[in-house]
């Protein structure tokens, strides 16, 4: 180990040295913060006429990310997006972030600063301030826990529980790209260069490592009172449709022909003998939004798409609960919408 890398080790700078660096790197300036990093708790001014949204996520090395094929910056970006996307799904504005982490001593502080740089970059388009966290050592793996605070106009938050029979089901962007990108990354060795990837592979891996939270779409849907229910696609379309159905006590029909698939996903599926529809239905971590809206709002939904430049596709309809959750294949045959998205603690 060189002298400079010895000096830049967790052992050398310690917990508080690291916190100081991170605080400096991501300094808060919002007038809404009375007290940020540095005390036992942060103090925030309340926003009038607004409700607070608070969500937390845990990320475990080897489960949610893998430094064998992701850079620390990628990990930070994705961690940020996972949280931002939860606020997007509620129709809110992200405001504050708390970051807790447990790090093995072998991790160089520059990797942690890089991870924060990824987080900062994902939060860049919004004014998100870092207001606290916690730092501890870990015997072997990295654990990250992010808590995000956002706000939404009182009683305008989008929830999973207000879908109504007859609503149209919409999704933003294209589905399945992230899952395909992950598959590509997993087949590459630790030292692969992205320049060795084809254009299709580059697009798909980028969709995995740099997903976009659909904050603006969520905000407009909430502000304009267009959507009845919303969720972000983190587990996979089939699972996430299921979550809305369960919470809203309704059924759903999803039409395969209408699922938005990128040409890159189709090319990847063809080359690897995979069903692109299956990738779109089961692949998680797209961080697109799924929402339901009454048919009378269709034109206004299209206007949101136009304004935000985010494609929005109608992929089905909310049905009575007794209908269950069905999927109409491209050949017209109907089948149960099977949930095979990733779940922890099971191999289902
Ligand atoms: P406590 O003893 O109350 O846990 P700490 O000494 O751990 O407080 O933290 C000091 C300050 O630094 C607190 O404001 C805390 O929120 C913040 N902090 C600690 N770790 C992090 C981190 N990884 N990222 C951002 N802020 C942090
Ligand atoms: Mg602490």
In short:
The longest helix is centred in the first third of the chain and has 18 residues.
What features would you describe in this structure?
It is a single chain. With 348 residues, the chain is an alpha+beta fold. The chain has two domains: 3-153, 60s Ribosomal Protein L30, Chain: A, CATH 3.30.1330.10; 168-336, PurM-like C-terminal domain (Phosphoribosyl-aminoimidazole Synthetase, Chain A, domain 2). Helices cover 35% and strands 23% of the residues. A seven-stranded mixed β-sheet has the order 8-10-7-11-9-12-13, sandwiched between helices. A four-stranded mixed β-sheet has the order 3-6-4-5. A hairpin with a 7-residue loop joins β1 (33-35) and β2. α3 (72-89) packs parallel to α7. It is globular, with a radius of gyration of 21 Å. The mean pLDDT is 93.
SSE arrangement:
Elements: H1 3-7, H2 10-25, E1 33-35, E2 43-44, E3 50-60, H3 72-89, E4 93-103, H4 109-123, E5 129-137, E6 143-153, E7 168-172, H5 177-186, H6 199-209, H7 215-223, E8 229-232, H8 237-248, E9 251-255, H9 263-271, H10 276-282, E10 289-293, H11 298-308, E11 312-319, E12 325-328, E13 334-336
Parallel strand pairs: 4-5, 9-12
Antiparallel strand pairs: 1-2, 3-6, 4-6, 7-10, 7-11, 8-10, 9-11, 12-13
Helix pairs in contact: 2-4, 3-4, 3-7, 5-6, 6-9, 7-11
The structure holds adenosine-5'-diphosphate and magnesium ion.
């Amino acid at each position: 180990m060189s002298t400079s890398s010895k000096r830049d080790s967790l052992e050398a700078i310690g917990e508080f040295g690291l916190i100081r660096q991170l605080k400096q790197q991501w300094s808060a300036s919002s007038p809404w913060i009375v007290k940020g990093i540095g005390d036992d708790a942060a103090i925030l001014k309340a926003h009038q006429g607004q409700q607070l949204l608070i969500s937390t996520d845990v990320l475990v090395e080897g489960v949610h990310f893998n430094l064998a094929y992701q850079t620390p910056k990628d990990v930070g970006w994705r961690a940020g997006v996972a949280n931002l996307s939860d606020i997007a799904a509620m129709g809110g504005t992200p405001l504050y972030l708390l970051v807790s982490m447990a790090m093995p001593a072998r991790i160089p502080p520059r990797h942690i600063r890089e991870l924060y740089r990824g987080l900062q970059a994902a939060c860049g388009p919004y004014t998100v301030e870092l207001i606290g966290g916690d730092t501890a050592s870990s015997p072997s793996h990295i654990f990250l826990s992010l808590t995000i605070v956002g706000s939404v106009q009182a009683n305008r938050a989008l929830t999973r529980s207000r879908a109504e029979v007859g609503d149209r089901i919409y999704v933003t962007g294209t589905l399945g790209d992230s899952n395909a990108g992950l598959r590509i990354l997993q087949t590459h060795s630790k030292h692969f260069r992205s320049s060795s990837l084809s254009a299709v592979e580059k697009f798909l891996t980028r969709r995995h490592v740099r997903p976009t939270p659909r904050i603006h779409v969520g905000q407009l849907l909430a502000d304009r009172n267009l959507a009845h229910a919303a969720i972000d696609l983190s587990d996979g379309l089939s699972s996430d449709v299921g979550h809305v159905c369960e919470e809203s006590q309704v059924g759903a029909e999803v039409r395969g022909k209408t699922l938005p698939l990128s040409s890159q996903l189709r090319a990847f599926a063809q080359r690897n003998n995979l069903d692109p529809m299956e990738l779109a239905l089961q692949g998680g971590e797209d961080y697109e939004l799924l929402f339901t809206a009454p048919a009378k709002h269709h034109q206004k939904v299209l206007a949101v798409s136009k304004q935000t430049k985010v494609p929005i596709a109608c992929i089905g309809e909310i049905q009575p609960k007794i209908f269950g959750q069905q999927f109409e294949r491209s050949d017209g045959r109907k089948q149960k919408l099977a949930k095979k998205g990733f779940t922890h603690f099971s191999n289902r």
